[in-house]
Every structure is written in C-alpha cells, then in structure tokens.
UniProtKB/TrEMBL annotation:
It is found in: Membrane. Coiled coil: none annotated. This is ABC transporter permease. It is a multi-pass membrane protein. The lineage of its organism: Bacteria, Bacillati, Actinomycetota, Actinomycetes, Micrococcales. InterPro entries: AA-Vitamin_Transporters (IPR050638), EamA_dom (IPR000620), EmrE-like (IPR037185). It comes from Cellulomonas hominis. The chain crosses the membrane at residues 49-69, 81-99, 111-131, 137-157, 164-183, 189-209, 216-238, 250-270, 282-301, 307-324. Keywords: Membrane, Transmembrane, Transmembrane helix. The keyword Translocase does not apply.
C-alpha cells in the first residue's frame, strides 16, 4: 500500500509515493532499487514534462474562451462587472477558507498588487473596452499581450527578446484580427486605451508573478489574488451597475461554472504555468481564448465562419505553437 504526500501536490509536483507505515521493509537509497544510483532527468523526459505543463496551462485560456457563451446565454444582460465580481470574490474567499493561509509581511501588498493587475484592474478595463468597442476590436487589442509580456520580461526579468517571439506575436495579433474583426468596426479612443491598458495590466501581472514567485501552496496563492481583485471590483459594481438584481437558476448555474472552473481552476493552472514556464511563452497561450470562443459560437450558437476567419484561427494557433517551440524548453523552479 502507498500514500501520497500533500506537500508535493501543493507545490504542483507529481504525487510522491511513500511506503505504507504498516509494512516493514529495507530502506532504499534515493533512485529506486537497492544499490542503483539516483535517476537523472533526460532531455526527453524534460521535454515531456514541459509539454504536459504547457497543455495543462492551456486549459486556463480555453476555459476563459467559454466565458462569452456562458455570459450571453445564462447571465443577466448589461452586468459584466457583476459577473466579474461574482466570478472572482466567492471563489477567492472559498480558496482562502479551505487553505487557511493569509499573507504575511510584504505579501499583503504583493497579493493586492497581483490581484489588482490579474483580476480587478484587468476586468474593469476589459469592461470599459467591451462597452465602447466592438467585440472584435477589444479581442484584437487583447491579443497584443504576448508582445507586452515579451517587453516587460526583458525589462523586469532580464529575458532576451527573440526575433521569433516578436514575429509570432505579430502573427497572433493578425490571426485574432482576421478571426473576430469586422470591416464595419469603429474605433473609440477611450475604448482603445482601455483595451490596451487591460493587456498591459495582465501582462505586468504575469511578469510580476514570475518575478516574485509564491510563498504558499498554489491554491492559497490563487485565493489571495481572486479575493483582492474581487474586493477591488465591489465598489465599481455598486457605482456603475447599482444594486445587483435577483438571480434565476440559470444565472446561478452559469456563475457557479465560471467561479469554480472558469476562475478558481483556470487561474490556479495559469499561475502554476507562469511560475514554471517562460512568461512570454505562457502569454501566447491566451490566443486560445478567442479561438475557443469563435468555435463555440459556430458549434453551439450556429454562427457562421468564413474563409478569412478560419485562416485567422489557423494563423493564431500557428503563432501559439511557434512561440512554444522557440527558446529553451526547460521549466523554471518556483521562485518563492
């Protein structure tokens, strides 16, 4: 019989198997059978581990891509800030209660900053952009985030900006533009600034998360940020949208899905990827969101996709794959 250590799972590693306490046996040296040297990680094993981590991190933007469908079909109309707050705050408080870990020292203000950048400010600016711009324009502005992260990574993390990364970032923006932008789209200066500001806010959040690491298990770290970001949104909801209306069963179900899967799980996977993979490469995974949203619109809502949109989806996914193949494939150790 074996049992798994919770500490290993908290740190995002695979389960560590320990001999059952009820059975006696000879102590084995690290590495396996008696007398054998410790196992070394081969390049192939490292590449497989990186691929597995990348795929699990990609689940986050894929889940975020379902937000549009859930919001339009299940949630109250004209309440995007309420939806954002109810996604973040309950999930954050639940994770804090379950993990029973609070910030200490500098991590009070660091958690507040990360929560504001990754959740509160990002959602608020996204709301402004969504209301003042067509959805295609807002999505295209959000697609510049990989380029933002590449620049901030060079400034704050000392990461070299590769030509391939810049080309992939430009291709990603072009692909999303082809996928979601319409010829009749109008531009609004405030909306454009808000869209770019949202991309910069989350991009800076990604880079600072990679720089600062985390001092606690992943779920506690995620709970801190969701709670801080949700609390920041509460006064905005009351000021802009007023007192929330009563929610029907469909809205409660939609919010439960967004809170548990689209926020708590998604952000936990996202932060785990940010701390272990190069920041610029992680940011390219965000290109999955508009692709998933468009695919669900076609499959579930019957929205037609023309040839240019399909080409845009292929271009965006190609940029994503190219960014993952570039540079070192090694994962980074947790910083704190």
């Amino acid at each position: 019989m074996v049992r798994m250590t919770g500490q290993a799972l908290d740190r995002g590693a695979g389960p560590v198997l320990l001999p059952d306490a009820g059975r006696a046996g000879p102590a084995l040296p690290e590495g396996g059978a008696a007398g054998t040297p410790p196992a070394r990680t081969t390049p192939t094993a490292a590449a497989r581990a990186t691929l597995a981590l990348t795929l699990t991190t990609a689940v986050a933007p894929a889940l975020w891509g379902t937000t549009y469908l859930v919001t339009t079909e299940l949630l109250p109309e004209g309440r995007p800030l309420l939806a954002a707050t109810l996604r973040a705050l309950p999930a954050g408080l639940l994770l804090v209660l379950l993990t029973r870990r609070l910030p200490r020292g500098d991590w009070w203000w660091r958690a507040a900053v990360l929560g504001a950048l990754n959740i509160g400010v990002f959602f608020a600016l996204l709301f402004v952009a969504a209301y003042r711009l067509p959805g295609g324009v807002a999505a295209t502005l959000g697609a510049v985030q990989p380029l933002v992260v590449a620049g901030l990574g060079a400034l704050l993390l000392g990461q070299r900006v590769r030509v391939g990364t810049l080309l992939a970032g430009i291709a990603g923006v072009a692909g999303v533009a082809l996928l979601v932008l319409r010829a009749t789209a109008r531009l609004d200066a405030v909306g454009v600034l808000a869209g770019l500001g949202g991309a910069v806010a989350m991009g800076l959040g990604v880079v600072l998360t990679a720089r600062w690491g985390r001092p606690v298990p992943l779920l506690a770290f995620t709970g801190w940020q969701l709670t801080a970001g949700g609390l920041l949104l509460v006064p905005l909801v009351l000021a802009v949208e007023g007192v929330p209306p009563a929610l029907d069963g469909a809205a409660v179900g939609g919010l439960a899905y967004l809170g548990v899967l689209g926020t708590a799980l998604a952000y936990a996977l996202w932060f785990r990827g940010v701390e272990r993979l190069p920041a610029a490469r992680v940011s390219f995974l965000g290109l999955l969101s508009p692709v998933v949203a468009a695919a669900l619109g076609w499959v579930v809502l019957g929205q037609a996709l023309n040839g240019w949109q399909l080409a845009g989806a292929v271009l965006a996914l190609g940029a994503l794959v190219a960014a993952q193949r570039g540079g070192s494939g090694a994962t980074r150790r947790r910083a704190g």
